[in-house]
Write a structure and sequence with these properties.
By secondary structure, the chain is α+β, with helices and mostly antiparallel strands. The protein has one domain: L-amino peptidase D-ALA esterase/amidase, CATH 3.60.70.12. It is built from eight helices and 16 strands. The strands form five sheets. Strands 4-3-14-13-10-9 form a six-stranded mixed beta sheet. The chain has a four-stranded mixed beta sheet with strand order 1-2-5-6, with helices on one face. It has a two-stranded antiparallel sheet with strand order 7-8. Helix 6 packs across helix 7. The protein is globular.
């Protein structure tokens, strides 16, 4: 790979927009954190080499935490909704989101077998940092997962409360690291190295500017279906890349998509936004395969005073006839977030010397040109 393609002239990691023309106008950071006070934090564990010894490693995993209103306002709920393309996965807390229409906690994303420890650790943090006047009687955090057991000692249960706290303490608005980071550390996307990716769009509706942002943990898909800029290029990028032999079925995996907007939408409208990541995934070549958990959550940071346990509240909403630009933005941003994850992720060797190659950007540039 041409190393000059990996690093741009200003010293940052190359993102997909540096090479590819996407539809839509991105926000300032082209990130989910373009929406109000949203913060994202990661904790990453990379230790050990060679043969898998359960409980010892190698370890290639982590956790990502998203604060919908920022860490300072973590206990101010947002309107929210969720949806599923294919259900071979887990996102805790969604029953209450669907019932109540509110997301009341930060969001965690990790590997399949660490959902419990991340959930418990987040509950403990919420309880400890709530003020005496608003300590919740119970908490149902939203924790999502994708499977990293091809590269990681997933049954070794290496994520601890310490790592959850590290992701919380690392949370910030910019930059949001992508690729082999946090929950995305050991993930595989279209048989290339995958992980965390993010993007955003700004739109104008009736003279008002609104933003939509997405963050993905991409761990799905087969190489021959990978599509970029409308071109099915997966087979063209398969040259001289040996396949993973260690109990790996291409296409199995999952993708988590978190959608955020500052547009004033009600939960039923957010449900409509939460369905649209499926179209962005399809644009990149995903099909929601049987072995994939494709689960999406959408929330709005508007209507900051909507949640009140004791008093009536007044809220604002957009007309359904006005939200098409937001729906389109979810599709566009999801597509770009996935490709950003592929651009940022680097080749990784994990358990039993399983090796997953990064997207060959030099070859991709040649094809696109």
């Amino acid at each position: 790979m041409n190393s000059k393609l990996r690093i741009t002239f200003i010293g940052r990691i190359m993102r997909a927009r540096d090479l590819i023309t996407f539809n839509g106008t991105p926000g300032k950071f082209n990130s989910i954190t373009d929406i109000d006070d949203i913060e994202v934090g990661h904790s990453t564990i990379i230790k050990g080499h060679n043969k898998l010894i359960v409980g010892e490693g190698p370890i290639r995993t982590g956790v990502t935490i998203i604060f919908p209103r920022g860490k300072a306002n973590f206990n101010t709920p947002v309107f929210a909704a969720y949806d599923v393309l294919n259900g071979n996965g887990e996102m805790t807390g969604t029953t209450w989101v669907e019932e109540s229409g509110f997301l009341e906690t930060p969001i965690g994303i990790t590997n399949t077998h660490s959902v419990g420890i991340v959930r418990d650790s987040l509950i403990k943090w919420i309880t400890n940092y709530s003020t005496s006047s608003n300590i919740p009687r119970f908490s149902l955090p939203v924790i999502a997962e994708t499977y990293d057991g091809v590269l990681n000692d997933i049954n070794g249960h290496h994520i601890s409360e310490e790592h959850v706290l590290e992701a919380i303490n690392n949370s910030k608005q910019f930059p949001v690291e992508e690729g082999n980071i946090g929950g995305g550390t050991g993930m595989i996307c279209h048989q290339f190295k995958g992980g965390i990716g993010t993007s955003s769009r700004t739109v104008n509706i009736n003279g008002n500017s609104y933003s939509v942002g997405t963050l993905v943990q991409a761990n799905y898909g087969i190489r021959k279906r990978l599509t970029i800029n409308g071109l099915n290029i997966g087979n063209q990028l398969s040259y001289n890349l040996p396949e993973i032999q260690d109990d790996y079925t291409p296409g199995n995996g999952s993708i988590i998509v978190i959608v955020a907007t500052n547009a004033p939408l009600l939960p039923n409208q957010l449900k409509r936004l939460a369905r649209r990541p499926s179209l962005g995934i399809g644009n990149v070549g995903g099909i929601g395969s049987n072995g994939s958990g494709d689960i999406f959550l959408a929330f709005s940071t508007a209507n900051i005073n909507a949640f009140n346990r004791k008093e009536n509240t007044s809220i604002e909403m957009l007309s359904n006839d006005m939200i098409d630009p937001l729906l389109q933005s979810v599709v566009e941003s999801t597509e770009e977030s996935i490709i950003n994850a592929l651009f940022a992720a680097k080749t990784m060797i994990g358990i039993n010397d399983n090796k997953v190659y990064e997207l060959p950007l030099g070859k991709l540039k040649t094809i696109l040109n």
